[in-house]
Amino acid sequence: MKSEELFSRATTLLPGGVSSPVRAIRPYPFYTASASGSRIHTVDGTTLIDCCMAYGPLLLGHAHPDIRAAICSQIERGWLFGTPTPAELELATMIIRDHPGNEMVRFVSTGGEATMAALRLARGYTGRMDIVKVEGGFHGAHDAVLVKAGSGATTMGVPDSAGVVPDLVSHTLQVPFNDAQALEEVLRSHPGVAALIIEPVMGNIGPVLPEKEYLKDIREITRAHDVLLIFDEVITGYRLGIGGAQVRYGVQPDLTTLGKIVGGGLPIGVLCGPRRIMQLVAPSGPVYQAGTFNGNPLSLAGGIATLRWLHSHPDSYRTLEMKTRAIGEQVEERHDGAFVRIGSMFKYFFRTQPPRNYRQAKESDTVRFRAFWEAMMKQGVFLPPSQFETNFLSTAHTDQDIGIIGAAYRTCL
Ligand SMILES: *Cc1c(COP(=O)(O)O)cnc(C)c1O
Fold first, then answer.
1. What is the percent of the chain where pLDDT is above 90?
2. Residues in the chain with pLDDT < 50?
3. Residues forming a β-bridge with 198
4. Which domain does 352 fall in, by range?
5. In this structure, are 231 and 380 located in the same domain?
6. Which of 74, 236, 305, 387 has its CA 20 to 30 A from that of 206?
7. Does the residue 289 lie in any domain?
8. Strands 345-349 and 391-392, bridge-based pairing
9. 403 CA to middle of ligand 1, Å?
């Protein structure tokens, strides 16, 4: 069956025809038959160079042999036990080694669960109930963080979804990215804030980079107000390098959430932090968190294999950065938009300047993006189908792939 027919059946079975909203490409999404390395093979017989990489997890590309071997070997021994396994200690040790200042880890099943647990832990630790997030920051699809960006410089939360309890969301305050002053003002006027949760590099409105001293400034401001700083590194963890944004920028958060790459393509979320805070998590403390699939052996096996590979290929991040830059060089010299990149994350914004926050990103010309996206598909390059989703490269993208992607950008722009 071809994609068009599959999708028309899917619309009767799945709301909107898909299992997650961003996949609902009009008029119909392509269906994947298989994938390996940098390539996706569709059920329609097309092969695409993938610059979406499942929205970030597949740093080593599709079906990486080392990860496959680790998963298969775990499958031989069983894949779910409901008991502790040695792999938990192994992956926790690796994560703690790679993120100095973190001493304990809770494994959950998704990034969204990790941020939910982080916020509950911050509230339990401080005894305060308000949280601050950044406008346009995405932390998963749970109530406290499904908050629409408002119109003022700082706003009380308004639910971004039907069915979210307004009373809960009224505890979520928002500040613009790259505006330390706005954070200072919110914390000064709201004494009940438990934590600031932030993507240190915004990844869910396209990459929006922190300006020079911004992360250091918010570290100082949160510390001065005795507010916990939570870095949501679900995208940036192991994407921007070993140790993610906190090591790259040299800023130590109080709590960190990881996901995506740390599961090697299997579902995972990780909450980590120093012992003095983490020991409040159940069963050693009063902040409840539990899950049937917490620390599930297959995700741990995928994660361990990924981190081992990364540690044994120390040049891979530099190579990835060079590849991203090579695409940028094809684009920058000739066009009027803004090519933003960091590490293996990049995006071409249809606006003249790189955005510094959500509101500026939103000014991009999405009609032009849509036409561009379709043209790229015709060139055999699959980009995430939104102006506001980051493009990702993997270590499986060859120099030849980069040449094709760069040429496709030139042609399509
Ligand atoms: C993807 C993402 C999440 C949610 O992770 P899931 O595994 O999809 O629940 C949370 N935070 C950030 C920054 C993300 O990019």
1. 94
2. 151-154
3. 231
4. 31-63+315-412
5. no
6. 305
7. yes
8. antiparallel
9. 30
